[in-house]
């Protein structure tokens, strides 16, 4: 007779750091066999990204400076869910697409959900496919976005850039390859109201409580 799966309950938690976009807590977690172990967890707002594809089958990519790596990376337009735990991911995606590229889209679907590095962080993101692209006024950019460059890249060329190591951002890699896979298998993508089980909420709730 098989045993029930072990419940990894949290018996204690201590906040170590809380900053602008992340917090670090240490949880005491129940392990199989009765002992407990400490697990460090980086809390994050979560994010959305957009695979915006025009009628030429080109995808909009942005070249953005990323300080931890010390260089500019080709990425999908993206942004944090930092307006609170009740922020609509779709509305955030629409906002970020306008702010980073000066583009809007008539058609939206969920392309793929990604848990970025679940061994130590709850950071997750939802990538949307946006089509029916049109240009709209773009707000004045600030900080890194003032240096950001948008470029249209053919989808086949984007795949080549992933496989050659030119595109390394995990969001861009996931979005580009997921789009190609969905097309190859004629997969019907999820609607924008599809459940997002792993959307991070702990950090947003913590910030809301401190406000």
UniProtKB/TrEMBL annotation:
Residues 43-175 form the Nudix hydrolase domain. Its EC number is 3.6.-.-. Keywords: Hydrolase. GO terms for molecular function: hydrolase activity. CDD domains: NUDIX_ADPRase_Rv1700. PROSITE patterns: NUDIX. PANTHER family: ADP-RIBOSE PYROPHOSPHATASE, UDP/ADP-SUGAR PYROPHOSPHATASE. This is NUDIX hydrolase.
């Amino acid at each position: 007779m098989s045993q029930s799966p072990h419940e990894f309950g949290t018996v204690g938690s201590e906040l170590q750091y809380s900053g602008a976009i992340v917090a670090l807590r240490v949880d005491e977690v129940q392990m199989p066999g009765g002992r407990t172990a400490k697990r460090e967890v980086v809390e994050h707002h979560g994010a959305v990204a957009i695979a915006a594809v025009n009628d030429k089958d080109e995808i909009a990519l942005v070249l953005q400076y990323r300080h931890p790596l010390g260089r500019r990376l080709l990425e999908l337009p993206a942004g944090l869910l930092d307006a609170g735990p009740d922020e609509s991911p779709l509305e955030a995606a629409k906002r970020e697409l306008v702010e980073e590229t000066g583009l809007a889209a008539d058609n939206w679907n969920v392309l793929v959900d990604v848990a970025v590095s679940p061994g130590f962080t709850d950071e997750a993101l939802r990538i949307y496919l946006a089509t029916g692209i049109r240009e709209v006024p773009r707000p004045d950019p600030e900080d890194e976005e003032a240096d950001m460059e948008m470029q249209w890249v053919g989808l086949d060329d984007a795949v080549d850039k992933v496989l050659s190591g030119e595109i390394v951002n995990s969001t861009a890699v996931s979005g580009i390859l997921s789009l190609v896979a969905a097309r190859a298998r004629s997969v019907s993508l999820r609607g924008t109201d599809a459940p997002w089980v792993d959307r991070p909420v702990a950090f947003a709730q913590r910030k809301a409580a401190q406000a």
